[in-house]
Design brief:
The structure holds 2 protein chains of 2 kinds.
Chain A (H helix, E strand, L loop, with lengths): L2 H28 L6 H10 L13 H9 L24
Chain B lengths: L2 E3 L9 H9 L2 E6 L11 H20 L4 E6 L9 H8 L2 H4 L5 E8 L5 H17 L2 E5 L6 H14 L8 E4 L6 H6 L3 E5 L8 H11 L4 E4 L11 H11 L4 H16 L9
Parallel strand pairs in B: 1-2, 2-3, 3-4, 4-5, 5-6, 6-7, 7-8
The chains are: A mainly alpha, B alpha/beta.
Chain lengths: 92, 267
């Protein structure tokens, strides 16, 4: 597909998702309390959206996923929970 | 359109879903052993589960003309207790010769703990000794990158393991490259929120090529769509990919990988 075709197929959907993101941040900031590690990771991930393409082409989805990821390499001594939260608590 | 659903937890789905899969063109559904949403209280619970996977589900599927295959293992979410895991793993050889069993899976990691790693190594060893295919679950969300690295280390350190006989599932943009570069197959799971959307999965196909990649719904008891693979096929067509491309991704690729098991027969 050329860029025009991509925009024809996906622009309105992406626009809607972007507004949803903005509304989510508004909602979170209207609510009482402080940011936690999830929202801090979210704000950090947002910075990847409008940056320049990387040397080998646009890889923003990968950069956002990495922004939420545990970057460490050593196994945990023990699993104390089963679930995942979506953001690594130790990063922020 | 014909397709193979390579990863679906049908014990958690209604009979209506078998019907919908058949109507959508699915000709085979493959069911890895997984977590039931709660921890089983004894190895006997797994014994019954393995019977369900090898006896009951093939019968449910057959009512709609669907072939049902399965994978056996102890899932990573119940791998923290190594002694318990060893007792469950000891049950598997009794079932491995059943006609719908494809291999050992979905093994892997959940929270990337030392005990999970130890149990992963035990099950990789079992697969190697029994000369079975392997299906690997990679962790969720923030744990996926680290878990994928650890899993690749385990697999690459066992010289008996041939990468072309292992599929590493639930890859996303930040893990797919390292899985494919190491020679393994990669599975993309289509989940509404926590894994990949059809659009992102097709992006990955366009960026990495379709060799050694497959798509699955991994539908289970959580928020998931049993028809996610046909949805992704529609996404490919929407972008102008032809029928041969779509068929190769949703039917040819799983057939090529799963066909390495002598039990995978569609006729």
């Amino acid at each position: 597909m050329n860029r025009r075709q991509v925009l024809d197929l996906y622009f309105l959907e992406a626009r809607s998702k972007l507004i949803d993101l903005a509304a989510f941040l508004d909602r979170a900031e209207r609510a009482a309390g402080a940011d936690d590690f999830r929202l801090r990771a979210f704000r950090a991930a947002l910075t990847h959206l409008n940056g320049p393409a990387k040397k080998h082409g646009p890889r923003r989805a990968e950069s956002v996923l990495l922004a939420f990821s545990d970057p460490t390499t050593a196994p945990l001594p023990r699993a104390t929970a089963k679930g995942a939260t979506g953001a690594w608590p130790g990063k922020t | 359109m014909r397709y193979i659903e390579p990863h679906a937890h049908m014990v958690s789905r209604t009979t209506d879903d078998y019907h919908r899969l058949a109507l959508a063109g699915c000709c085979a559904v493959c069911e890895p052993a997984f977590w039931a949403g709660f921890d089983r209280s004894s190895p006997a619970g797994f014994y019954d589960y393995f019977r369900q996977l090898t006896e009951t589900e093939p019968q449910r599927a057959a009512k709609f003309g669907l072939k049902h295959f399965c994978w056996l293992c102890l899932n990573p979410k119940e791998s923290e207790d190594v002694k318990f895991a060893a007792e469950v793993i000891a049950l598997i050889p009794e079932f491995i010769g059943r006609p719908n069993v494809l291999g050992i899976g979905e093994i892997g990691l959940n929270k990337n703990s030392r005990n999970e790693l130890a149990v992963l190594e035990m099950q990789v060893d079992l697969a190697a000794r029994l000369e079975q295919l392997i299906l690997v679950h990679t962790p969720h969300l923030e744990d996926k990158l680290k878990g994928t690295r650890l899993i690749l280390d385990v697999l690459k350190n066992d010289r008996r393991i041939r990468p072309e006989r292992v599929v590493i599932d639930h890859v996303e943009e930040h893990t797919v490259g390292r899985v494919l570069d190491a020679g393994f197959w990669a599975g993309m799971t289509l989940y509404p929120e926590t894994k990949s959307t059809p659009a992102r999965a097709v992006d990955i196909l366009e960026n990495y090529g379709r060799e050694r990649l497959w798509l699955n719904s991994a539908c289970d008891w959580g928020v998931s769509d049993p028809l996610a693979v046909p949805q992704a096929a529609q996404e490919m067509r929407r972008r102008g990919h032809g029928a041969a491309f779509v068929d190769d991704v949703v039917f040819g690729n799983p057939q090529r990988f799963l066909g390495q098991s002598p039990n995978f027969k569609l006729d």
